[in-house]
């Protein structure tokens, strides 16, 4: 009998992104499936002119370079559209370490994200 992931395991994704009150909360692994879902969620909620989107990455367990590319592209798209995208990652999390290494602007808590001033320094 062949070994490997069962169909049930293959379909059991750990990535989840929920949008509520201007915040996109991302959890799990930003794997091949998660990258597509993350790209779509960022485009849907963060690219309209005047939009303000807080992206909470604190519960992300895996964030590869291609995921960083999706986030970086979304930040640029938001800026070009006149939207604001704010990244959040709690201290000591995978996402916080990746964002820090990549020199991407972030806050360590949703509450620390600026409310009205888009010119505020985004580094926590």
Textual characterization of the structure:
This protein is an alpha/beta fold and 124 residues long. The protein has a single domain, classed as Transcription Regulator spoIIAA (2-Layer Sandwich), CATH 3.30.750.24. 36% of the residues lie in helices and 23% in strands. Strands 1-2-3-4 form a four-stranded mixed β-sheet. α2 runs parallel beside α3. It is globular and about 30 Å long. The protein starts with 6 loop residues before the first helix and ends in a 23-residue tail after the last helix. The N terminus and C terminus are likely disordered.
Quick summary of this structure?
This protein is of the alpha/beta class. 36% of the residues lie in helices and 23% in strands.
Task: Please give the structural blueprint.
Elements: H1 7-11, E1 16-20, E2 23-29, H2 32-46, E3 52-62, H3 65-81, E4 84-88, H4 94-101
Parallel strand pairs: 2-3, 3-4
Antiparallel strand pairs: 1-2
């Amino acid at each position: 009998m062949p070994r490997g992931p069962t169909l049930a395991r293959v379909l059991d994704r750990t990535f989840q992104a929920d949008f509520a009150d201007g915040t996109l909360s991302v959890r799990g692994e930003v794997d091949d499936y998660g990258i597509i879902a993350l790209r779509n969620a960022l485009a849907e909620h963060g690219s309209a002119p005047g939009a303000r989107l807080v992206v909470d990455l604190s519960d992300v367990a895996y964030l590869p370079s291609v995921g960083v590319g999706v986030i970086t592209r979304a930040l640029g798209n938001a800026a070009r559209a006149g939207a604001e995208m704010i990244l959040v990652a709690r201290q000591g999390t995978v996402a916080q370490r990746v964002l820090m290494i990549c020199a991407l602007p972030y806050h360590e808590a949703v509450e620390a994200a600026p409310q009205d001033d888009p010119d505020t320094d985004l580094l926590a």
